[in-house]
Design a protein that fits this description.
The complex is a heterodimer of chains A (about 140) and B (about 150). Chain A is mainly α and about 140 residues long. Chain A contains four helices and no strands. Chain B is about 90% helix and about 0% strand. Chains A and B meet through α1, α2 and α4 of A and α2, α4 and α5 of B.
Chain lengths: ~140, ~150
C-alpha cells in the first residue's frame, strides 16, 4: 500500500516558490523550537542541580535529580536531531541541494520517530497511572 | 531576464523525488500515530478528571485548602486543566492535518496539498516554539528567584 502511494505519485514534483517559502519558514520555526527547547532544558537542569546541591537532605532530591538527568538526555537527543534536520534543510533550500534536502527530511523523520517512541512509553506510564487512580477511587482509598 | 532566472531556478530546483517522498510518508505515519495517541490520552484524562472530580476535590481541599466553597480558586484549577487539554489538542490537530495532507497529496498527486501539509507543520512548530519560549521564561524566572533567596 505504501509502495503504491509512493510509486503512483509519478511527477517528480518540483517545489514551487510557495512550497519553498513554506518549507523555509517551517525550517526557521523548527530551528527556533530546537534552540529554545535546548535552552529551557539547560535552565531546568541547572535549577535541579542547584536544588540537589543546596538541599541534599531533601527526601526527593535524588529522585528529582535522576529525573532531571533523564529528561535532559531525552531533550538533548530530540532537539539535536531537530537542529541537525533544520540545518540540512536550511542549507539545501539556500543552495538548491537535493541530496542535502533528502538528508534533512530523513532527519526530520528520525525526530518524529523518536517522539513517537517516547509517546508510546509515556502512554504506557500514563495509562498505568490512570488505572491505579481509578482503582483507588473504586476501592475508596 | 526574469524568465531566465526562473528557468535557472527550475533547472536546479528541489524536487519531491523518491527518497524525499519516502521520508515524508514515514514522517506522516509517525505524526499521525503521535497525534492520535495524544487525542486519545486527552480524552482519557478528561474522562478521568470527570470520574475523579469528587476525589480530587477532597485532595485539593486537604493539601492546598482549595474546595468548592471557595469558588473562584476551585474553578480556576479545573479550568486550567481543561484549558491545557484544549491547547494540546489544538497543537496536535495541526500535526494530524500535516499527516492527512501529505498522505492525500501523495494519493491525489497534488503538490498543493503537500504544501498545505507543510503549512500545518509550520503552524505546529510556531505554537510549540511559543510554548518552549514560555517554558524557558518560567525556568529563567525560577533560577532568578532561587538566586535571590
Amino acid at each position: 500500500m505504501t509502495e503504491d502511494i509512493l510509486t503512483t505519485f509519478k511527477p517528480q514534483a518540483e517545489l514551487n516558490d510557495e512550497g519553498l517559502s513554506e518549507l523555509s519558514q517551517l525550517t526557521q520555526w523548527a530551528r527556533w523550537n530546537a534552540i529554545l527547547s535546548l535552552l529551557a532544558m539547560v535552565c531546568s537542569f541547572t535549577m535541579n542541580l542547584y536544588t540537589a546541591v543546596k538541599f541534599p537532605e531533601a527526601p526527593d532530591a535524588i529522585a528529582s535529580f535522576t529525573m532531571a538527568i533523564l529528561s535532559a538526555l531525552l531533550s538533548l537527543l530530540l532537539n539535536t536531531t531537530l537542529l541537525s534536520a533544520t540545518g540540512k534543510l536550511k542549507t539545501s533550500l539556500e543552495g538548491y541541494n537535493q541530496e542535502l534536502f533528502n538528508m534533512g527530511l530523513a532527519k526530520l523523520t528520525r525526530y518524529f520517530k523518536i517522539t513517537g517512541i517516547l509517546t508510546i512509553i509515556a502512554l504506557v506510564f500514563i495509562i498505568f497511572a490512570i488505572i491505579i487512580g481509578l482503582s483507588a477511587i473504586a476501592t475508596g482509598q | 531576464m526574469e524568465q531566465k532566472i526562473q528557468d535557472s531556478l527550475s533547472e536546479f530546483g528541489l524536487k519531491l523525488d523518491d527518497e524525499s517522498r519516502s521520508s515524508l510518508y514515514k514522517t506522516s505515519r509517525w505524526t499521525k500515530f503521535i497525534s492520535v495517541a495524544v487525542f486519545s490520552l486527552g480524552a482519557l484524562l478528561f474522562i478521568f478528571f470527570i470520574a475523579a472530580k469528587d476525589k480530587m476535590t477532597f485532595y485539593l481541599n486537604r493539601e492546598m485548602g482549595i474546595n468548592a466553597s471557595n469558588g473562584a480558586r476551585f474553578w480556576i484549577f479545573f479550568s486550567m486543566i481543561f484549558l491545557m487539554i484544549a491547547i494540546i489538542s489544538v497543537i496536535y490537530y495541526f500535526l494530524f492535518k500535516f499527516s492527512a495532507n501529505i498522505k492525500k497529496g501523495f494519493e491525489t498527486e497534488q503538490t498543493d496539498t503537500v504544501i498545505e501539509g507543510f503549512k500545518s507543520l509550520k503552524i505546529y512548530f510556531i505554537i510549540t516554539t511559543i510554548l518552549s519560549g514560555l517554558i524557558l521564561l518560567t525556568n529563567l524566572l525560577g533560577i532568578i528567584s532561587k538566586l535571590i533567596q
